[in-house]
């Protein structure tokens, strides 16, 4: 009898302990007082820049304090997400895909922008079609980056290849700032770059955009920037995620409905963050080549991953099943 009572007492204690832990976890999620959003001071991150500046996130998140963390590249962003320095934010598809396939906890919830990447040539380059890139010197910002993969698909679609893979195009990796000097000294014929670099090259060098953002592979539907978080944070804070995406969608609509005001906000915020001032003309031209949208086409993202694997930048399986979760976005936009 005593043994049975002891067992019952232990069972009751275990049940109460589990209920206490469950309640504690629920309280921690619902009582969240502050979140940290990560993003870059880039044109393609316009929803983050405008949403933070205009307090759209603050108003939608019911009093939760918003902290921000600015990043210079996707690798550092993904490090911060993995170590809980940020809770969610905006990053290019390449870094997010690579970390996911390496086993990291990352989920893509929405797009922030598509397009924004173009093929630009030196002003005296006689360009009529992609075939004119044969035996020319072409640059991309880095090997395996999103712009580089768009370039590889562009020439693949036209039965061309780079000298790195037995083709006729002299392909080089150069930082956009370096490309400007190479264009000026005629050491570079063309480049695939994102905005605002193309607009700056047009303004400063009379360079020509010969393949616009919506003429690039996949008709410009490849996300330039994704909204991402971790599955753990999403699971613990579903209401917050939904409200965040409501704010994100409101900001997307605000930018599209107020292009002049948005360009002014972006100009001001980029100057405050980077201490560099872009002219309104550059920003407005860049924004016309950047489609600000929350719509996320998972099939295009998968094609990007498959191409990256084909070219050897991703080792192993490129299957992105489980990477994208647009269920919260669908609730917001239905």
UniProtKB/TrEMBL annotation:
Record-linked InterPro entries: ABC_SsuA_sub-bd, NrtA/CpmA_ABC-bd_dom, Solute-binding_3/MltF_N
Boundaries of every Solute-binding protein family 3/N-terminal domain copy: 34-273
Example of a GO MF term: ATPase-coupled transmembrane transporter activity
Higher taxonomy: Bacteria, Bacillati, Bacillota, Clostridia, Halanaerobiales
Signal peptide stretch: 1-28
Alphabetical list of SUPFAM superfamilies matching this protein: Periplasmic binding protein-like II (SSF53850)
Protein name stated in the entry: NitT/TauT family transport system substrate-binding protein
Pfam short name (any one): NMT1_2
UniProtKB keywords: Cell inner membrane, Cell membrane, Membrane, Signal, Transport
